Known about the structure:
This protein folds into two domains: 2-51, no CATH class; 65-275, Fumarylacetoacetate hydrolase, domain 2 (Alpha-Beta Complex). α1 (27-33) runs antiparallel to α2. It contains seven helices and 18 strands. By secondary structure, it is α+β, with helices and mostly antiparallel strands. Strands 1, 2, 3, 4, 5, 6, 7, 10, 11, 13 and 16 form an eleven-stranded mixed β-sheet that branches.
Amino acid sequence: MIRLYATASGLTLERAGAFSGLSDFAAIDRIFRADDPYGEATQLFDRGSRTQAAEPSRPPLLSQEVWAAGVTYYRSRTARMEESKDAGGGSFYDKVYEADRPELFFKATPHRVVGPGGAVRIRSDSRWNVPEPELTLAISASGAIFGYTIGNDMSSRDIEGENPLYLPQAKVYAGSAALGPCLVIDRALPGPDATIAITIGRGGAPVFSGQTTIGQIKRPLPSLAEWLFRDNSFPDGCYLMTGTGVVPPDAFTLAAGDEIRITLEPVGTLVNTVAPPRA
């Protein structure tokens, strides 16, 4: 296992408790393009300068698009049906949950993604905003899953619920995604008992917490990657968020200043604050 952290000055790779530093951000793209990303990361670790642990401040991506899968957990199916019932779209999500073809949608270009410690955003024209904590797969240019990180799929539930065709506006905007704190490069994915947990703090006190396990995802993870790469190509690889099984209650909405903490071992904890909506 190798952990890749992106810092203000470069990359730090960790293997077996040792750290290696690189100033070359383009190494991220080389890992995603490699036929053997783990082998490429190992060579980069060996070529780097021995260093100490560094505080990550950037998302672990360079040229990669971020995509997302929806309605992969039963809890997500229920929430999506509830939020869209008045618009007549509830049955769409039930059908997607049971269908062979998954829901896949574009989430973010690199400039819309923030890293650990950064500020995610809520839309100025939305009244109901939530974070969605998600296992996020790193997929190489050839379509192979070679690692994973934590993703936060920020969502405007009222916009999405008003009409299913508004999904891009509910999901894609400045600061709508966060990744980190590191990219775990490994030949194995987290097991079904791996827990992804979220806590939202406001004014120093928790206002929501919840957790689920990766095993609650209905679809096999490799199948999500296979569907994403059908009739599509990603020359620099991509990230794929795999859906959320933790949804705050309907009465909850994020506020400026909230702190979002998402934990998945061995990735660690992704911490972000909520910025005020843009004027």
